Amino acid sequence: MKSGRSSSSWLTSLKPLAGLGKIALGLPVFWAIAIAQPAFANEQVELRVAIKEDVSQLKVGSSTNAIVRDDSGQVLGQIAAMDGFSAQVNGGNIAIGNWRASRIWIEPTGDGLVWIGDRWYRGRTLLAATPKGVTAVNYVDLEKYLYSVLGGEMPPSWPLEALKAQAVAARSYALHQREKTRNELFDVGDTTAWQVYQGVEDEYTSTQQAVNETAGQVLAYEGRVIEAVFHSSSGGHTENVEDIWTQPLPYLRAVPDFDQEAPVYQWEKTFTQDELSNRIGGVGTIRSMTPERKTPQGRVVTMRIIGDAGQKVVSGNALRSALDLRSTLFEVRTLNAGQSKDNAGGVRFQISGRGFGHGLGMSQYGANGLARRGYNYQQILLHYYKNASLARIQVE
């Protein structure tokens, strides 16, 4: 088993999956790839997932007897099955009961689960003392990590082909992050800023099946795992990465989406003049909001905001955060007294938008829509990740 990071790459090669050819199916052209059912590898890729960061204390335990070690590997003791302990930092060390060390490992025996905070997790867990508190890092087999990620990122009742597309995208994203991370303690976090990971409570039969049936498969470009970002719904069309972030990437290109049935496909929020002015700040009472720059698909890149005490230009992402919007694909309309739905007095600002998320890579609702139309996961993936290919990882 690989643990942590090694000086030599764990990725000996990305084996392209055979049978590449174009097919037209009444939608934009997809690449179809014929693959054999992958075999499970004898060795595992272990991912380091930060599940708690800089907390004052947390509860720990194990479903089976668990070995407790320090960072040198010395056994400190054992936690009995279903016993609970509190972990905190004391004098620069992790303190659990009478055990003290700068880093403490909890390793369940057999197929046991580890209890950290308020959830059960597979694998083993490192507790590290930081200047701000306790950080817990779950060391978990990549495939078993994905069992949970799929349940957190996509409804388990969705078609299997959509779940399989999510499995390959999530696997690719995790491995890309693992290779580029500069964090000493972990490769990824467990929130939507990374991929949602909540332990075994998010595992389902369908998510396990989707992971197992795509085991070891990733998206690659020129022999490297791609940054397979994804989002909930694009609102009809995804974006080129350079229009949202900075560096152009050949596999994150704008494509038509199939998310029209998403509940977040269209949305609307209305703010009073005071509400909007307080949330944005710096210009007094807001009089107008005018987009200065948009992406080719209509997402707000910058917005000029004029108030009675000044004006400023704000990024679309900053506005999305300040106003808690689902995306930057929106338009602003000024409603005078009596024009709003509730017929309230005073000026109001109506924000009408589409989609949920950054609009890059695979749209999850789009994947669901394509799967319901009969497309398989390979077709779904290679629609959303242009110029990429499916490959299988090998562990050294």
Structural commentary:
- By secondary structure, the protein is α+β, with helices and mostly antiparallel strands.
- It folds into three domains: 11-43 and 143-256 and 359-395, no CATH class; 46-142, no CATH class; 266-354, no CATH class.
- 20% of the residues lie in helices and 36% in strands.
- The chain is built from eight helices and 26 strands.
- The strands form seven sheets. It has a six-stranded antiparallel beta sheet. The chain has a six-stranded antiparallel beta sheet with strand order 10-9-8-5-12-13, with no helix packed on it. The protein has a four-stranded antiparallel beta sheet with strand order 1-26-16-17.
- It is globular, with a radius of gyration of 24 Å.
- Mean pLDDT is 88; it is low at 1-42.
Topology record:
Blueprint: E1 11-16, E2 20-23, E3 30-33, E4 46-55, E5 57-62, E6 66-70, E7 75-79, E8 84-90, E9 93-96, E10 99-101, E11 103-108, E12 114-116, E13 119-121, E14 124-130, E15 133-141, H1 142-153, H2 160-180, H3 205-213, E16 217-221, E17 224-225, E18 230-231, H4 241-244, E19 266-272, H5 273-280, E20 286-294, E21 300-307, E22 310-315, H6 316-323, E23 330-335, E24 348-354, E25 362-363, H7 364-372, H8 377-384, E26 389-395
Parallel strand pairs: 18-25
Antiparallel strand pairs: 1-26, 2-3, 4-15, 5-8, 5-12, 6-7, 6-11, 8-9, 9-10, 11-14, 12-13, 14-15, 16-17, 16-26, 19-24, 20-21, 21-22, 23-24
Helix pairs in contact: 1-2, 1-3, 2-3, 2-7, 2-8
